[in-house]
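User: I'm putting together notes for a lab meeting next week and I want to include a structural view of one of the chains we've been expressing. I don't have a solved structure, so I'd like a prediction I can at least talk through. The sequence is below, exactly as it appears in our construct file.
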Amino acid sequence: MQAVAGKLGLGDALELQAGLAGFIGHRHNIGKYFMSVNERSDYQFVTPHSEGSSFVGMQLASFYCYENNTDGGDTILINVDDCGKGWSFIRERVVRGRLDKGKELAKHEILRAKGLYQLNLPNDVLREDDQILEEHQTKISGLTVVEVLAKSSMTYSRILDRDVNVYWDSVDGSDFDSASQFEQMLREMGLLKEPPGGLELRQMDSDAERRIWHSGVSYCDLFKCKITRKLAPGDLVIQNNLSWTHAVSNWSPGSGERKIAASFA
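Assistant: Thanks for the context. Below is the predicted structure for the 265-residue chain, given as structure tokens.
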């Protein structure tokens, strides 16, 4: 992963993401560049997404398998259809900045807003077509942070050397319809694991608490094709994080162990 990231000029991004894993505390580091994957409850799956958000713009994602002897836990990589007709309806959960009338931010305030609130000002100002969810006061006088559902925008891919539509975690994780479509996909593939009597979707969805709206967009209007593989010990996957999403099927509790390490740049 270090060699690939270095060839693409992403060495600094690789080190930054590895450092953030331990600093934020949501994952723990495994070696220098890899980290643990997010934990989940019994029978939970992970829906298709590109890691991160448009603010971070991560270009590479990598997964290494140490152990995977469960009765599920298949990795599903899904290729984005960059020209799919569903993108005009897709929204991403992002933050915007709203300035008081007449307020202009000094350079140090712009840098502070980026570090504290993930705002690239003046680009990330509130727009007329943003759907406002919440508002928060900030430590910067005259600046309010507004959480919104914003129309999806394209991101530059270093690998493809062009702008592309990306199905970010901040897109997928907000959309109820993504969870229901992935559940149906797993059923059709014979990969969904359930206890006797079944489970409600929200119990199997690892992002259930984050979802807030229905896009109405079908996967067939966003994606081209998929690759399904149950990773075995020693398997390493490196993918373009912008043009491919990753997802994982669930498994029955007590059926085995699944230990995967991830790395991003």
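A couple of points you could mention at the meeting. The chain has a mean pLDDT of 95. The chain has six helices and 14 strands.

User: Perfect, that's what I needed.
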